[in-house]
Design a protein that fits this description.
- The chain has 4 helices and 8 strands, in the order H-H-E-E-E-E-H-E-E-E-E-H.
- Helix content is about 30%, strand content about 20%.
- It has one domain.
- It has about 190 residues and is of the alpha+beta class.
- It is globular, with a radius of gyration of 17 Å.
Length: about 190
């Protein structure tokens, strides 16, 4: 009982901190076998690019990944949950908000580090979105934005190099070419 009350209080606090419309019940997860209820749109893409362009500056300057959710508020406007600060190469998603209809996850890849193949979504980035049954957006140190499409099990480049703020110290790796899309199998092979 105490655990349930604590969860309700925590969810209420998170909803209040999200600065979106008051609580309304939405279905947060749909099976991966079903297409997304809201198709991807130019408006969504523009919202994501503008959000990442601002968030990249913080992510790169602190060398930390930031993550959260993108969705629609009760007025039908695109919103992003407050970005949760992660580590240089990971970010644990925050609790699901209850007051927006979730469309996708999002996360940055922090500052450029030549030890990582961080100009494309990682195998675990795409696999995690597939497991959640959610599409996911990823921004890279080189200023690219990717969309992980859970149902299709692939990552598609939304916009190329310098589309959003990029790390001034970024150096492209000629041995790791960046192509417009990757299947989950191709991402797994690229990491091995």
């Amino acid at each position: 009982m105490i655990r349930i009350i604590g969860m309700v209080l925590t969810l209420g606090f998170l909803a209040a901190c999200a600065e979106v419309e008051p609580y309304e019940t939405y279905t947060l997860y749909a099976p991966v076998s079903q297409p997304r209820a809201q198709p991807h749109s130019k408006a969504e893409t523009n919202f994501v690019i503008a959000m990442f362009d601002k968030l990249q500056r913080l992510s790169i300057s602190e060398n930390r990944e930031y993550c959260g959710y993108i969705g629609l508020n009760t007025a039908g406007r695109f919103v992003a949950t407050p970005a949760k600060r992660g580590k240089p190469a990971s970010c644990i998603m925050p609790a699901l908000p209850q007051n927006i209809r979730i469309l996708a996850t999002y996360h940055t890849h922090a500052a450029y580090d030549g030890r990582y193949d961080n100009e494309v979504p990682s195998y675990s980035d795409l696999a995690g979105d597939i497991d959640l049954g959610r599409d996911g957006y990823v921004s890279t140190p080189g200023g690219r934005v990717w969309l992980n499409i859970a149902l299709e099990k692939r990552a598609v480049m939304v916009c190329d190099r310098n589309c959003v703020y990029s790390d001034p110290g970024f150096i492209p790796d000629p041995e790791l070419p960046v192509v417009p899309q990757f299947s989950i199998a191709a991402l797994q092979a690229r990491q091995n």
